[in-house]
Write a structure and sequence with these properties.
Blueprint lengths: L1 E8 L2 E8 L4 H19 L7 H7 L4 E3 L2 H16 L9 H6 L6 H4 L19 E4 L4 E4 L8 H18 L5 E6 L2 E5 L8 E5 L11 E5 L2 E7 L4 E4 L2 E4 L2 E2 L4 E2 L4 E8 L2 H26 L4 E6 L4 E4 L8 E4 L5 E2 L1
Parallel strand pairs: 17-19
Antiparallel strand pairs: 1-2, 2-6, 3-5, 4-5, 6-7, 7-10, 8-9, 9-18, 10-15, 11-12, 13-14, 15-16, 16-17
Helix pairs in contact: 1-6, 6-7
Amino acid sequence: MFRDFTFRAMNSHIQVLLESEKSTAELEIPVLDGFDLAEQRFSRFLPTSECSYLNARSGQLSFVSDSMLEVLELARHYKEQTNGAFDICVGHAMEQAGYRQSFERIQERMMELEQPNSPPYLGMALQVDPWMKSVRLLAGDKVDFGGIVKSWTAQQVANRLRTDWRVRRGFINAGGDVTVWGGAAVNEPWCIGIANPFETDPSKEVTLQLRTGAVATSSILRRRWLTNAGEMHHLINTRTMRPSLSSVVQCTVVGQDLIACEVWAKVLCMLGMEEGVPLFQRRSQDMEALIYTSVGDVFQVKPLLGSMEHSWTGLKGERSL
């Protein structure tokens, strides 16, 4: 029997669908606890979070929890994989762009920016010592865990449901970061809708059929807000420390690891077609991307190695790369 429930966490709508003989109330425990604990630890907007603790101690050595260390190590790995395009040390730039409060609050009014221009990117600003379980931020810098923690949490929760709770089939959608396993039935994949950014009709969305794996979508069209310096969004170009200006407005990445999918979807939006696609093909050869550009073009970047057990319906006019 499938159990279905939804809730709000990490400024996102979370949808969960699980096949299990356990009651919905029982299954909600590991899911709600997992997202709540992650938000309490990693949120930039909670003054009592471990993230806020690290930001308040920038320039100083700070000891961290096992969970924080794991995410910091993941962030360092993907910074290397993306040649610095992905970086969690963008908290100060986020604030300068007006993202000083949770997204629901900054939507309510125009944000006044005192310093619309951010300093240039200075390189590696995060020192992590896994043996000491410590981290040191560059003095004055701040971390923002954003999507990597949302995807990490969804994947952690899914792993626990599969191993500890013996959930045979499952679907978790954390605000566009989706992990699925087992299929919707014995011989049926999960069907995951991907909105077309240029269509308001839900029937025009693309559908991904996937039995087990992950898919993440990033877009510059959703989390946007008005400021006295113009409209801003949440994807920061680490070279300019300002919202990115690439031609890619939405990117969906399919693979087996949700964290990798989320990171690369964001990076392709930030770097754009000319630089982002070749880097993606070199560094993530078993993943696939679906890219929408500002002029309405659609590109399907297929994996260079291996094959993926998935299919699409509703794609029209896409070009393969």
